[in-house]
Amino acid sequence: MTAPTPKKPDEDPATDPATPTDPVPTDPTPTDPVPADPVPTDPAPTDPAPDGDTFPRSYVEELRGESAGYRTQLRTVQEQLHRVLVEKNGGLADASDLPFDPAHLDDPEALQAAIAAVVEAKPHLKARKFAGDVGQGGRTSAPAEVNLLGMLQGRV
Q: At what angle do helices 108-121 and 57-89 cross, to 10 degrees?
């Protein structure tokens, strides 16, 4: 039998950087089962981040309330503009007969088509224009002067 040869100190696998210290697994499939839905162990931090990108809850709620107010004002103004545009068109007797649609504000053809569709579906909503003398309102000719003395003389 041959005696083993002594190793040199520079050939020690623990100190040799070319020799890996961790054994490489030969089986590519893991032997430990991995849970399908891992549960986080640390809950989300409740403290604000130290980088200064977060704001107090009251300030955020105030900003959200202010934004909601602006959105409400915008919606109200858009509805008023829609009503004025429908009245200006003159196709409907009452502008509230056409429901609000933001597309009508940008596209006059879409507004005209929507009014035409409402009038076609419900003809009684169409605006009517009266012409001729119905015995009321302003007259183009001035009435004759009233002469009370002439009326009394005509009775005698």
A: 70
